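My current task is to audit a protein record that another person submitted. I have pasted the whole thing underneath without changing anything:
***
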Amino acid sequence: MTTRRLYLARHGAADAFGTLTEIGRRQAGLLGERLAGVPIDAVWHSPLPRAVASAHELARHLPNVPVTEAAELVDHVPYVPSAAETPPSWTGFFDGYDDAEAASGESLAEALITRFAKVPDPATQGTQPDTHEVLVTHAYPIAWLVRHALDAPPPRWLGLNSANTALTVIEYRNNLPPTIVMFNDMSHLPPDLRWTGFPAGIRP
């Protein structure tokens, strides 16, 4: 059986301009140390600077693993819900999103699923039975991949939050539904580096 394991991570903490901070570098390095014990085949990252820097920082602990940009991992709103689908706490968040922006986000979300949320084609992967890939991205694409793995309705991506460099693992196997192995795990981070980028009002 062929298995694909995606190790999803939000970028490290960044400043208001989207530049990785020193805290973010520490977080990414610690995630790299954690993943050093996994036979990682590839590191993919969003084109945005905070994700690029995070990917290269964690990859310092993964010698000879290729680090490659993937446009599908860019920060985007994957699905704009209708008024009836929008929870009260999200009212107003989607104000200003026009049809073209919503369609662009949905197109990116479809491309993300098509490229990553499946077992690789044996024609391109060869005979390797398992692949382990790190995706350094943003909170919304992670939420969309989790929603897809759960086969949940499109609006359920709302409220699926990921802290900076928290680890989510999804496993894909032939002829079986995806398995969420873990979600938003921060055990590689000391207490003072946990929960950054996560809504303060719902931190445990």
